[in-house]
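Reviewers asked in the last cycle whether our approach scales beyond single polypeptides. To address this, we selected a multi-component target totalling 274 residues and predicted its structure end to end. The input consisted of the following lines:
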Amino acid sequence: MELPGLSKGELVIAKLLCDRSPATVREIFESLPEDQPMDFATVQTYLRRLETKGYASSILESKTRIYSSKSQASSIVKRTVDELLSRLFGGSKMPLVRHLIEERSITSDELQELKELVDQLAEQKKTTAKSKQARKK
Amino acid sequence: MELPGLSKGELVIAKLLCDRSPATVREIFESLPEDQPMDFATVQTYLRRLETKGYASSILESKTRIYSSKSQASSIVKRTVDELLSRLFGGSKMPLVRHLIEERSITSDELQELKELVDQLAEQKKTTAKSKQARKK
DNA sequence: ATTGTACCAGTACAAATGTACTGGTAGCAA
DNA sequence: TTGCTACCAGTACATTTGTACTGGTACAAT
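The resulting structure, written as structure tokens, was:
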């Protein structure tokens, strides 16, 4: 069940749907960021296409169709990012990480957040290593 | 001079071109990752389109056309990542950073690299702050 | 009963995209 | 000089994408 890729436009709607699933066309329509408005009917079309592509399902609840996402936001994100990585960075992620935190100005808050993340990961790593050792893998 | 967006396919070629510019069609063709082969003529078409869109220029050097990228890889990357960020993460980058280092298994080496990066940034930040203070901005 | 109002399914359609064939030519091998 | 190669410009074309109109209908307000 290899889902077909999503176009740029579909992606926006897919993400919105994930975050609010289940939702009506109108709900999605209204949650559009106002910097890129879109016709109600256009949203409709995108949702229909998402369903066709297997990313969503829907039921007709007395006159109103309710769409539900069939995939987690995380999996859509993963898929999309994977594509990006393979297209631009030969599949490895560190170059992108670097790009994100080097080529763009980072705020102190973000830096702080990042630091915590790293510490946390390091901690986790240590634990994993230990338990591995314990199990004498 | 707002360059038009690049499609997924164009992006691959654009990146390849950036990395080797100037290059002939054949060179690009041969540097294609073998997991997604493509006809020579298709590469030709992509390059032509890149030129039309303003991302590349070319000259005919005695029977062979030589393409050069007109933009830095970094700016193409930036543009593409920006798009992704706005589409999937409301424009902020930390969620993507998080995704990259949390949702995907990270190796010790990568973690180490990340740690260094963070330290380096912290250092830089401190310096900046100081000089700002010195200048009594 | 009449008229809006919402929403739906279907259809439309130009532009962008992915992918490639073709006919022509210049240079080199035979 | 005759092919065979490489390469080029141009053209082709089915799909996908972006974007939206339409005609029909059910429910609500008049």
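Residues 58 and 67 of chain B are 4 Å apart (CA to CA). We regard this as preliminary and will revisit it once experimental data from Aim 1 are available.
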